[in-house]
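hi!! sorry for the late reply, been swamped w classes. u asked for the two structures so here they r. pasted raw, havent cleaned anything up. first the sequence of the first protein and right below it the tokens
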Amino acid sequence: MPPQSWNEETLNPPSTPPRKEEPSPYQVMAPPDYLTNLEGATHELPPEYPVYYFFYGTLAVAANLKRIIDLQEEPRLRKAKIIGYALAKWGDYPALINGEPGQEVSGYAYLVQCEEEAQKLAYYETNAYRVADCWVFCTDGEEPSEALGKTFMYAGDAKALLEQRFDRKLWTLQMGGKLG
């Protein structure tokens, strides 16, 4: 037996369709083919560089960073943190993995100037790490105090790291026989 709030019309609706609601003002403003007709679009994407990279291990040492991206002077590193991440050990190296909400990892931020610098950093990190977007919070009291940025996260099995399972053969393969 249906609940008392139901009536005959609810169980057997009329054959006429319901009245169409007024369109959203956003639908009125955009032409019908707005999302599919991109030919001749003049919208420019924001530039990718410069962009802050968050470092937490060997790249957080200014002398290492200078050598790796071939800078003339020591780079300016800013004290920073990211939230929602954790560090685990991958052999002798720290590896950034997803953490609990609110969990913080402290490190440093560096403003990568161009694609060439980013490629040198990725080469140094090997294929054991992948570039990931993150929100960088600078803790040095200077502006900007936060920015959308990038970091290197462990590309392997984070659960294995947490369980302290380390496979030396896999490590050698991922490192490509080179050390940082």
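now the second protein. again sequence first, tokens right under
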Amino acid sequence: MAKTHLREYSIKVIVFVFSGLLVAMAMNFFYIPNKIFSGGFNGIAQLIALFFHAIFGLNLQVGAIIMAFNIPIAFVGWKWAGREFTVWSFLQNLFSSGLQILLPETSLVHSEPILAGMFGGLLMGIAIGVTFKFGFSTGGMDIVAAAVQKASGKSIGFITLFINAAIVLIAGTFIGWQNAMYTIIGIYITTIAIDSIHTRYQKLTAFIVTKRSSEVAKALQESVVRGITIMPSFGAYTQEPSSTLMMVLSRYELREMELLTKSIDPDAFINVINTVETSNNFLNEDLQSQIRFERVAAQAQLNEALNLDEAAEKFKNN
């Protein structure tokens, strides 16, 4: 157990350093020198730096502005996005913004701003996606997006894209609409990269045709903790009755569902389709954890009662 925990922690630290480096490279080597804006608070920090340079002649470090933004956002995340998530995200933001201050602002793509937008967006999307996958974020707007996503179940990439629309409009006003279009390209690629890597909250609907519906449904409800609808069905080819189980689950639960179903009924037919939207009674991870905890506690109480009865019976017989 200790070795497993140490291994997971080591991987998380590697992801921490790797993602921080990607963010710093995206900002200093692609976005800032080409006057293309990142999404979230990174983009807002770029706008503030341009504003102070144009109005007051001050050259503020974008990394320093991002670092300042990170402090009040951490308080929001502490309450709404989870403490461990917020601490790791806060430290990651400090690390990446510190690297931005230390690294030079120089473009790796000369006279090709569209490439700057594409590669900057890709690096930023990879950084955000892998951090979310390992339980934290790059800080800033990611913490806000995670808090909203936790309450609504919406895609993190979708939420970030919606918030960044205001940044594009302001950027177009200040630096021209051509650079704003490059900004849109970068933000779009970031969104695609995030949702390609961080698939945890993508929803799927599974249809399971089986002759052992009760056993499969019980096992899935205990392990995956999802609601299941059982519908009677009839095989047109076999001319035999069966049952079809319908359940909505997250993409990260798909493999567990398939393995569990096939372990009970190897002949089960599974059809999985994408789900666009669900109602409010789709369990999130917190509710799933709560249900699992309640089940374990109830089982422990039952076992304790059985042990007491068994001890009393032995005492009586003696």
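hope this helps!! also noticed smth abt the second:
The first helix runs from residue 2 to 31.
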